[in-house]
Design goal:
Layout (H helix, E strand, L loop, with lengths): L1 H28 L12 H13 L6 H13 L7 E3 L1 H12 L1 E4 L2 E6 L2 E7 L4 H5 L6 E5 L2 E2 L7 H8 L6 E7 L7 E6 L1 E4 L3 E6 L4 E6 L6 H14 L4 E5 L8 H9 L7 E6 L6 E4 L11 E5 L6 H11 L4 E4 L7 E7 L5 E10 L15 H5 L1 H7 L15 E3 L5 E3 L8 E2 L9 H9 L1 H12 L1 H4 L5 H9 L3 H11 L6 H6 L1 H16 L2 H9 L3 H12 L11 E2 L15 E2 L1
Parallel strand pairs: 11-12, 12-15, 15-16, 16-21, 21-22
Antiparallel strand pairs: 1-18, 2-9, 3-4, 3-23, 4-5, 5-6, 5-7, 7-8, 10-11, 13-14, 13-18, 17-18, 19-20
Helix pairs in contact: 8-9, 13-18, 18-19
């Protein structure tokens, strides 16, 4: 009897439970499938599973992730970056200072890879390649045309150590390709691109970036200058975008006394870590001037800040970039990299020189240099606005945070002789194209000159500017005779610098450019007055004399 009463109740309960389950499933699995995604960090993982499982078309999830991660990091800060596996090797090589390849510097002109320079003691030099050779085949296949880009050329010519590649080249005066079999090997990328004596007592070192080889290269450069009886030192960090903290710390250690702070880092999950000089540096007394500009960033600013805050030397140039964020590298199993901001770095006085930024507004952040240009900061010290908090150096001089390193001596960028015609010629790449063509056509004659001074004397006698104007006109650029005359000095400087670099090297290039560089002149003047170490009476100075532009020193040549 009891069973007869219980059965309807059990059935009713089952119906109710079934309705509840049905309602839940209808709400959560019908229509908007994203509602099955859990809250918290697992949502992204679940989202990718849903797309992979349910999306109407097949989706390359790896490609989707590569595109999505930068968007996420862009909401954090401008320097947290994701590097896909395909680009990670190049990023690692840049810091290691070496890679495996054929050992050439190349540029692409008229759809053809042209050997700019053959790196000394490299695989290509041993095989017999020469500067000026045009690469037309690789492993028996044509390697010319609009599809050949810098990236494709680097990926093709680089490769595992001891692997072989057959390269067909057209050489000047020859109509048929010559085949070279090259065994790839380790190729060194030097951080220090120029070391020489500016005058009888002043040494000069140009540092491109801070990598694993920078410190030993720096010690070798210092030893070379010491043998040449250098009493003063100029370290050129203009256009140096940074690199490894360890490398710049070791370098700064050479100039500071024991116990002096070089830099410290600190973050939400990263306890404060001080990097302090150990007093074993061999150049603690050498008069020092450091050159910076608006491109100098990160590790360059650490070095300049350590020297400035410890009142060890004088900083000359223009306000630096303003990158005060520290990235930690994390490697993914697929070969890709994440460089995540985990701390800020602070100069010895306690200032963080990171310039302001808003999360998600990376484009505006990148436009800061353009704003500096438009605001006149590159041409007038009065246009520099220090809105950050004030700090004091070791002897009490006032310095500011929140926007790069402001130099002790400001030198404006060159505007003398600048015209719209010159800007168009430079931006279009026509000057570089003409310089390379001139070099290629006159390579045999130019080989007679082994120094920048000799080659410049020869080039001074050539009608290069007028010949360039004819070349540019043939490429569709309207001739402007008055502007050409007004910009003649700038044209000569740019053309000569490129030809000297094409035929010699970057050391020769810097020797040529530094001859009439106002920034260098200010450094030499500081040494002649014996005031490289600031005193309590030293104040922020600026010079209205326009310098000659050194922007031609920016070398954008690919290596393989």
């Amino acid at each position: 009897m009891k069973k007869e009463y219980l059965m309807p109740i059990i059935m009713a309960v089952c119906v109710v439970v079934g309705v509840l389950i049905g309602t839940f499933c209808a709400n959560h699995f019908a229509g908007d499938r994203l509602q099955i995604i859990n809250s918290g960090s697992s949502r992204l993982t679940n989202l990718l599973h849903v797309i992979d499982d349910q999306y109407v078309d097949a989706v390359d999830i790896d490609s989707l992730v590569d595109k999505a991660i930068p968007q996420i990091l862009g909401e954090l800060d401008p320097h947290s970056v994701y590097i896909p596996a395909a680009e990670a090797k190049q990023a690692e090589d840049d810091l290691k200072g070496s890679f495996s390849g054929v050992g050439i510097e190349f540029t692409i002109r008229e759809d053809t890879v042209r050997v700019q320079n053959v790196l000394p003691n490299g695989p290509s030099e041993r095989a017999g390649l020469l500067a000026g050779d045009k690469i037309v085949t690789v492993d028996g296949k044509s390697f010319v045309g609009k599809d050949i880009t810098n990236d494709i050329a680097m990926k093709t010519l680089k490769g595992p150590k001891d692997s072989k590649v057959k390269i067909g080249v057209l050489r000047y005066g020859s109509k048929t390709p010559k085949i070279f079999e090259i065994t790839r090997g380790n190729v060194i990328q030097h951080s220090i691109t120029s070391t020489y004596m500016l005058d009888e007592t002043t040494g000069y070192i140009k540092i491109r970036n801070f990598g694993e080889n920078t410190y030993p290269e720096f010690l070798a450069a210092l030893a070379q200058l010491s043998q040449q009886r250098a009493e003063n030192l100029v370290i050129d960090l203009r256009d140096n975008t940074g690199g490894l903290l360890q490398a710049v710390s070791l370098m700064a250690n050479e100039f500071l006394d024991k116990g002096q702070l070089i830099v410290y880092t600190e973050g939400r999950r990263s306890p404060r870590e001080d990097i302090v000089a150990d007093g074993r540096g061999a150049y603690k007394q050498m008069p020092l001037v450091v050159l910076i500009n608006e491109i100098s960033a990160s590790a360059s600013e650490i070095f300049a800040g350590a020297i400035q805050d410890n009142d060890r030397g004088t900083i000359v140039g223009r306000r630096s970039f303003g990158k005060g964020l520290v990235q930690q590298q994390m490697n993914f199993t697929d070969g890709s990299l994440l460089r995540l901001t985990v701390a800020r770095y602070y100069t010895p006085s306690g200032r963080c020189i990171q310039k302001p930024y808003l999360p998600g507004q990376g484009l505006k952040y990148e436009e800061d240099l353009l704003e500096r240009y438009e605001n006149g900061e590159l041409y007038s010290a009065d246009s520099i606005h220090n809105n950050g908090k004030a700090f004091k150096t070791s002897i009490g001089r006032i310095v500011y945070d929140g926007g790069g390193i402001t130099p002790d001596v400001f030198v404006p960028e060159d505007t003398l002789g600048m015209t719209s015609y010159y800007k168009e010629a430079a931006m279009s790449g026509l000057i570089m194209q003409f310089a390379y063509q001139y070099t290629d056509n006159n390579r045999q004659q130019l080989k007679a000159f082994s120094t920048a001074e000799e080659m410049n004397a020869f080039l001074d006698k050539q009608p290069l500017v007028d010949n360039f104007a004819n070349y540019a006109e043939s490429k569709g650029m309207q001739r402007r005779n008055l502007m050409i005359e007004k910009s003649r000095r700038l044209f000569k400087r740019y053309l000569h610098s490129r030809i000297i670099y094409n035929m010699l090297n970057e050391n020769a290039l810097m020797q040529y450019l530094n001859k009439d560089d106002q920034v260098i002149k200010e450094a030499l003047d500081i040494f002649s007055k014996g005031v490289s170490r600031p005193s309590r009476t030293t104040s922020f100075l600026y010079f209205s004399t326009p310098p000659c532009s050194f922007s031609e020193a920016n070398i954008h040549i690919c290596k393989a």
